Amino acid sequence: MNQTFERIEKHLYCRQYQTAGGEWSTLYYVRFKDWNGKHRAFPVGSELKTAREELRVYEARNIRREDFDADKEVKHGLTFSEWAAIYFRDKIDPEKRAGGIDREKRSFKALEPFFGAMELSAVTRSKVMEYRARRGQDPIVRRGKIVQGKRLSFATINRELAFLRFLLNLAEDDGIIERAPKIKLPTEKDRKRDRIASDDEYQALLGYMRRPAQRVLIGLFETATRVNELLRIKWDQHVDEKAGFIRLKADETKEKKPRSIPISPALKGVLNELKAEQRKIGSISNRVFTNNGRPILSIRTAFELAREKADIQDLHLHDFRHTAITRWSAMGIPREIVMAASGHHSIQIHDGYVNIKEKHITDAFSIATALQHSKPVESTSVVSY
Predict the structure, then answer these.
(1) Are 278 and 362 in contact (CB under 8 A)?
(2) Cα–Cα dist 149/354, whole Å
(3) Which helix (H) or strand (E) holds 43?
(4) CA–CA distance, 170 with 104 (Å, rounded to integer)
(5) Phi, psi (5° rounding) for residue 353?
(6) pLDDT value at position 371?
(7) DSSP structural state of residue 376
(8) How far from the centroid of its chain's Cα atoms is residue 385's Cα?
(9) Among 64, 71, 133, 334, whose Cα sits 20 to 30 Å from the Cα of 252?
(10) DSSP per residue over 228-257, as a string?
(11) If 0-12 CB within 10 Å is exposed, 13-18 middle and 19+ buried, where does residue 366 land?
(12) pLDDT of the residue at 383
């Protein structure tokens, strides 16, 4: 793991490290020799202002000759549920997106029945392996109903365990446990998902949705955005109708780079419809995608209901990002342009989203054959300048 560690000022240090996903994170530490001559190190958050305030608190405690080890004695007995409650209340990175927090809460909900009452120090690698084995036998449950014949996906369990590992590492950083267990997650590289929505599936889903959810699905199909990216766009900040682009800022994308997405005719129609509707009934926000003027926060339930009615198997909302990128590539748009519009800066990651099917091959060869056998342009009809 790439990381740097530097002194900011007396007793205050900054650690910057690169996560497995390639993103850089910052954590500040207070380090000093206490009144009893013992070296101390305390993590004090990811914001410099907060870190400086915490430094003053620790310096004051040291002047009062407080027992810093007493903090550990109180914290050591924390259960997984208690630690997660502290995390969600006090320790969430303010820059983390709402969608990321929602995923963490879903992971915690799955982890809690097994680990909830367990003290953090009792969470071992063998317990993690036991959880994976048990969880792998659980059926998929949608809206309280078991989906017959379907087990939880490998990726779902991996995400849950990734959150468990994150909380345990955080507990180690905070001195609550001596050492977090090493949780190695099996790679998902060989389990690349290549599902995209066919034209028939897309039309079927639209047919079973109400118009507010339809408009969001059209947006996903036309832009290759992630759901949380699309639902957050605002008229004055992101929609450039004159130039014909949806523009996302670097800090609003997973890749941390700005993105310009062309407004297709279908998306243009949706935007015009939304604008006209919001003028009539008023909007309580500046968000683009609304329902009766109120921001749409999710279409997950509407999508799952439509998918069930259309009898479509194994299709996720995120698959529409794959669908859009594949469609653009099949249209012959150069790879560099598709990557710019989708936000990919790695060819390897990008190619994983391009899932060419037989229909794309058939269509491409049909067009090429038609062009090859088309009647050549007569030389007399060519205008010379």
Answers:
(1) no
(2) 29
(3) strand 39-43
(4) 14
(5) -95, -10
(6) 66
(7) P
(8) 55
(9) 334
(10) HHHHH-BHHHHEETTTTEEEE-GGGSTTSS
(11) exposed
(12) 37
CATH T-level fold of 80-191 = DNA polymerase; domain 1 (1.10.150)
Could you please report the per-residue DSSP string of 292-310?
Answer: TTEEP---HHHHHHHHHHT
Rounded distance between C-alpha atoms, residue 56 and residue 30, angstroms:
10
Measured distance CA(223)–CA(220) in Å, rounded: 5
Predicted pLDDT of residue 191: 59
Tokens of 101: 């927090």
pLDDT value of position 234: 95
Shortest CA distance to 351 belongs to which of 329, 318, 384? 329
Task: Check if CATH label 3.30.1360.170 holds for domain 199-368.
Answer: no
Domain ranges of the chain: 3-66, 80-191, 199-368
Q: What pLDDT does 276 receive?
A: 93
Per-block average pLDDT, block size 10, for the chain (385 residues)?
Answer: 78 75 72 91 81 90 86 67 90 73 89 92 92 86 70 85 94 87 76 84 97 97 94 94 94 88 96 94 87 91 93 91 93 91 84 77 73 55 36
- Cα separation, 126 vs 42, in Å, equals 29
Q: Residue 252 corresponds to which tokens in the numbers above? A: 């609003």
Residue count (the chain): 385
Asked if the domains at 80-191 and 199-368 fall in one CATH topology, the answer is: no
Torsions phi, psi for 246 (to 5 deg): -95, 125
Question: Tokens 């014949």 belong to which residue?
Answer: 149
Distance CA 110, CA 80 (A): 13
H or E segment and range at residue 171: helix 154-173
What DSSP character marks residue 284? Answer: S
